[in-house]
Specification:
369 residues; alpha/beta; Rossmann fold; seven-stranded parallel sheet; six-stranded parallel sheet; 13 strands; 15% strand
């Protein structure tokens, strides 16, 4: 079984990129196709045989592919996968739009239907003028996205939340295989040294993550909050922050583990597609306080492994933080709840799925010939 991987853009590192590294362990000889690669930002991709598109030669495309709206559509359609038995697209954007032959099985590991076109359109286009000016382009991209969504032969969703979105926007059935978390690395604290307590946020600092909710709630209650991550909203968020808020920026994995292990709880004010930081916190034995929407409802058991607040407001979060007592949550139960997301479990589930679907695909193809 000859396998290829395909991903939208290689210019950052996050949860999706961790998935790619896990898949590389399963399929070490599989090349990785992508519209562009920024070699300075995607140093982790050195392990792959990367094949980029014609966009790589365009000025600034590797670092700012969004300057070329719509062009990645043609980039992914230009790839030739005729030499492969199975192609796995890992995507939240255009990579699902690859064209494969009838003899090649295309499996889409869907991170989410394209956010700015569907589920979070109103978050991306809040300003009326921007919404009006962009509507013709958005409409065309929605049309293409709908056609492209019919191209994969099979869909895997990263959570039940995404499974529902795939059906709502694409009318495609899917199986759920949760991404992996390195539960060998993220483990409960062993030593008994007590540090000053604090709440923790681990997130990209972008609009739809709504980090301002956690900042304002901790400002109001004068609670210590540490924020790990960088992003376009950094300036606005630092302007909101009071003296109890500390921005940590990017940190090493070792420092991240330490921050999880010593926090009172992780705060996740956003709607998450999967929410790797929530699982990492649980793996470290810490409860999670999350907005009651998206994948948080799949991971967090109220009064056992954390709390869920609703609506998505400062007041709702403040109400929980005001009476929150970390001592009422069992570290062992939190940690055990994260074991189903281990790297070993992910690899077993994913490989079993691929082999089963490939065998079924081959049998069907032989009957129709």
């Amino acid at each position: 079984m000859k396998v290829a991987l395909c991903y939208d853009h290689l210019n950052k590192f996050g949860g999706a990129e961790r998935v790619l590294l896990s898949l590389h362990e399963l399929f070490p000889d599989a090349p990785l196709y992508s519209a562009v690669i920024d070699k300075r930002q995607a140093t982790w991709a050195r392990e792959f045989k990367v094949r980029s598109s014609f966009m790589q030669r365009l000025p600034g495309a590797a670092t700012r592919h969004e300057r070329y709206p719509g062009l990645p559509v043609f980039a992914f359609e230009s790839f030739d996968f005729s030499e492969f038995d199975v192609v796995i697209s890992i995507t939240s954007a255009e990579a699902k739009g690859i064209v494969t032959s009838p003899d090649t099985l295309h499996i889409c590991y869907c991170l989410t239907p394209t956010r700015y076109l569907w589920s979070h359109y109103w978050d991306y286009f809040k300003r009326p003028l921007l919404r009006k000016l962009s509507l013709p382009v958005v409409s065309l991209l929605r049309l293409w996205d709908g056609f492209a969504a019919a191209r994969p032969d099979r869909y895997i969703a990263i959570s039940k939340t995404i499974q529902r979105r795939i059906w709502k926007y694409y009318r495609q059935n899917s199986s759920v295989i949760y991404p992996s978390v390195d539960t060998e690395k993220f483990q409960p604290k062993v030593d008994k040294i007590k540090l000053d307590p604090y709440f923790l946020v681990v997130s990209r600092l972008v609009t739809y993550k709504h980090i301002e909710i956690a900042i304002k709630a901790c400002n109001d209650l004068k609670l210590p909050l540490r924020i790990v991550g960088i992003g376009s909203e950094f300036g606005k968020l630092t302007a909101l922050a009071g003296h109890t808020i500390k921005f940590m920026g990017e940190v090493s994995d070792k420092e991240l583990v330490r921050l999880y292990q010593n926090c009172k709880a992780l705060i996740a004010p956003q709607e998450e597609d999967f929410g790797i930081s929530m699982v990492e916190a649980l793996a470290c034995g810490k409860p999670v306080i999350a907005f009651r929407s998206g994948a948080a409802c799949e991971f967090v058991t109220p009064h056992v492994t954390g709390e869920l607040f609703y609506p998505q407001s400062v007041g709702a979060l403040t109400e929980i933080l005001r009476t929150f007592a970390a001592s009422q949550y069992n570290s062992r139960l939190c940690s055990e709840s994260a074991e189903r997301f281990s790297s070993l479990q992910f690899k077993r589930n994913f490989l079993h799925y691929i082999e089963k679907e490939w065998e079924q695909f081959r049998q069907t193809a032989s009957v129709t010939k």
